[in-house]
Amino acid sequence: MTTQPSRDLETFPNPTPERDYTVRFVIPEFTCLCPKTGQPDFATFYIDYIPGTTCVELKSLKLYMWSFRDEGAFHEAVTNRITDDLVTAIVPRFLRVTGRFNVRGGIYTDVTTEHRAEGWQPAAPVQLPPRE
């Protein structure tokens, strides 16, 4: 196999930078290692962001997420690292990263982080009439 895990997040220009829109990724096959036991941890990651001037390229995101497979990481630390790396790479207007980790010791763990660009305010939500 020629594809290898990588921490390089590639980007491309936002095709519609004048509009706020949400990009959502669902990554159901995330794995890392428990830093205490070395056993595998499994999670689904949800990444929602409103792009600034750039977007993250999907294959590089896949290889980036894969790069944690052999690394020991606490759930809180890995979720915050992913957030920091994405903010550095794409400088989004808004970013939310949620890691939903499978059960470990009878406990499920969800970790959610958020980033908002300085001065960015979301548009007011549009209230649609109820369906008749």
TrEMBL record:
It catalyses: 7-aminomethyl-7-carbaguanine + 2 NADP(+) = 7-cyano-7-carbaguanine + 2 NADPH + 3 H(+). Signal peptide: none annotated. GO terms for cellular component: cytoplasm. The active site is at C34 (thioimide intermediate), D41 (proton donor). Pathway: tRNA modification; tRNA-queuosine biosynthesis. Its EC number is 1.7.1.13. It is found in: Cytoplasm. Substrate binds at V56, E57, L58, H75, E76. It comes from the Bacteria. Keywords: Cytoplasm, NADP, Oxidoreductase, Queuosine biosynthesis. GO terms for biological process: tRNA queuosine(34) biosynthetic process. Belongs to the GTP cyclohydrolase I family. QueF type 1 subfamily. Catalyzes the NADPH-dependent reduction of 7-cyano-7-deazaguanine (preQ0) to 7-aminomethyl-7-deazaguanine (preQ1). NCBIfam families: QueF-II. This is NADPH-dependent 7-cyano-7-deazaguanine reductase. The gene is queF.
